[in-house]
Task: structure prediction
Amino acid sequence: MSPRTTKADWRPPTPARVRAISARLREIYGVPLMAPHGDPLAELVLTVLSQSTNDRNRDVAFLRLRQRLGSWEAVRRAPLEVVEEAIRPGGISKVKSVRIKAILDAIAERLAAHPNDRPPARSDPLSLAWLADVPLEQARDYLTSLPGVGRKTAACVLLFSFGLHDVPVDTHVSRVGMRLELLRPGAGFEELHDQMLAITAPGQELELHVNLLRHGRRTCHARNPACGRCALARMCPSRGLGIAPR
Result:
């Protein structure tokens, strides 16, 4: 298949093929055990901090931010340079500090403008717990309307916080999905998220996301994918083709 397939030419995978690939990934990587943690604002900030860094640096930055400032309201009110210094281990802290404060300001401003629409938890005036109680599309639209928040970040919040039917598509998931032809090669990220939702059975969101991501990190690399030792090689239309990195 061409590295870029038009929508007219694209044929989505059958449910049987998706199940077969999911089962093979499960044999390799198991079933991830990650219960929804119920803290959407923490997940939102954590996802911002994860950009262009590794998990360890992201976690160090997040812990420093929480330890130094204590609450999200304190982060919102803190001087920008204080937030920037706290998250410095996560990289590109100048950009991330501005984004985090912009998100918190937007949440606070909307709550002040419509205090009865989304009642917050008393313990946290910036709570996003209400997202679990509205239709999924409404929750997603709210999140993606916040500064710098796209479909992937919104999906992380909805899936990891509440276990809702959304699937984050990062660079690993999109690369592996395209090579396996689970996703349309050349599709944009909005379309990729829609396609992932279309092929993912309810209850399988976390497993499919995590196992595709693991496979992208360990075997199906952007450069020089290890096709020779890939357990999915017989199922992969792209095996040994030397696909250009995405």
Observations:
- The chain has two domains: 15-33+167-235, 40-150.
